[in-house]
Design a protein that fits this description.
The chain is α/β, with parallel strands linked by helices and 345 residues long. It is built from ten helices and ten strands. Bound molecules: N-[3-({4-[(3-aminopropyl)amino]butyl}amino)propyl]acetamide and zinc ion.
Length: 345
């Protein structure tokens, strides 16, 4: 399968994240994309560089003030204190209920909190460039589908599906899956479906399209009562306004088996078929793998081939976007199993 590789991903290499108040090594590492690249090369898949600048479509997915903040966040941070070049900024204050989010404070940490849903998304000097190259890959994939390509895989990091119109979170800064869906719409697809198979609910993507009927969002994920991102992803979230009926959440209890997961996939595929979509975007998180260090589902490597085959059965052009998956050494095999399962149909 034609793969767009985000070569800027390496610039996003945070030194640590915060877990239970302690500094721990990041789960979301550069090695992840490198394992996928190695496996793609070993199994004969061609890699290309993204060729489309996503700037225009990016501004229709994310807000201008969030994009301006993110693009300049690192230089603003460094300008506060030269020693900050060696420090990772983390938010410590957030505008929760009753506090105002319409006014952007001048204080850097207050701005970081305004634009963050958690303190789990470490920002580094190269984060903007890496995330932007990821949305460039997504826009490029949409252009390739318009030109007649049947499927394109975006091998990119950091991931994106937790990033909303104006916030980062869950290791995500910009949302390439949302950019791919929006770019496909602008390239002439009347209806697009987004299927999110990451272990975690794609709260950012859901929120971006929640009021729209042209982009259906379907997600299979760990029940938010116990699993991140906790505050979105319930079955009663079905869309609002014109988007009513165009959001389908299929939460599964932590610890669910592969059998239960593929049952939910059948329901997801039935809803996508009913949408009569012209194209599909798959948020391809592989943290449903039994060996994932932060998740609790039980898919094995051959289940990912089965996932690819099942998606091919929809008969749609597809943009695959890499999302989560933290068993890094197995990530390449699992991702390429989806790709080849799809190709072999
Ligand atoms: C894209 C994506 O998969 N983001 C996931 C973000 C999850 N952030 C919360 C991580 C909390 C780690 N919990 C570890 C529990 C180990 N028992
Ligand atoms: Zn995830």
């Amino acid at each position: 399968m034609l793969t767009l590789f985000n070569a800027r991903h390496f610039g996003h290499a945070p030194a640590f994240e915060i877990f239970r108040g302690e500094r721990v090594p990041c789960f979301e590492t550069p090695a992840r994309a490198e394992y996928v690249r190695e496996q793609l090369a070993a199994r004969g898949h061609a890699l290309r560089e993204p060729h489309v600048d996503s700037r225009a479509v990016l501004a229709r997915v994310h807000t201008p003030r969030y994009l301006a903040f993110l693009e300049h966040a690192w230089s603003d941070w460094e300008a506060l204190d030269p020693a900050n070049a060696q420090r990772q900024p983390f938010p410590s204050v957030w505008p929760v209920r009753t506090l105002r989010s319409d006014r952007e404070p001048a204080n850097f940490t207050a701005r970081l909190g305004l634009y963050s849903m958690d303190n789990g998304s470490p920002l580094t000097a190269g984060s903007w460039a890496a995330a932007k190259a990821g949305t460039d890959a997504a826009a490029s994939a949409a252009a390739l589908l318009r030109a007649g390509e049947g499927a394109v895989f975006c091998c990119t990091r950091p991931p994106g599906h937790h990033a909303g119109a104006d916030f980062m979170g869950g290791y995500c800064f910009l949302n390439p899956a949302a950019v791919a869906a929006q770019a496909l719409r602008e390239a002439g697809a009347a209806r697009v479906a987004v299927l999110d198979v990451d272990y975690h609910h794609g709260n950012g993507t859901q929120s971006i399209f929640y009021g729209r009927a042209d982009v259906l969002f379907v997600s299979i994920h760990g029940d938010p009562r116990t699993e991140y991102p906790f505050y979105l992803g319930h079955a009663d979230e079905t869309g609002e306004g014109e988007g009513a009926g165009f959001n389908l959440n299929l939460p599964l209890p932590a610890g669910s088996s592969a059998g239960a997961w593929f049952g939910a996939l059948d329901a997801a595929c039935a809803r996508i078929a009913r949408h009569r979509a012209d194209a599909l975007v798959v948020s391809l998180g592989l943290d449903t793998f039994a060996g994932d260090p932060i998740s609790t589902f039980a898919l094995h490597s051959d289940d990912f081939s089965r996932l690819g085959r099942r998606l091919r059965g929809l008969g749609l052009p597809v943009v695959f976007v890499l999302e989560g998956g933290y068993a890094a050494a197995e990530l390449g095999v699992n991702a390429v199993n989806v790709i080849e399962g799809f190709e072999q149909g």
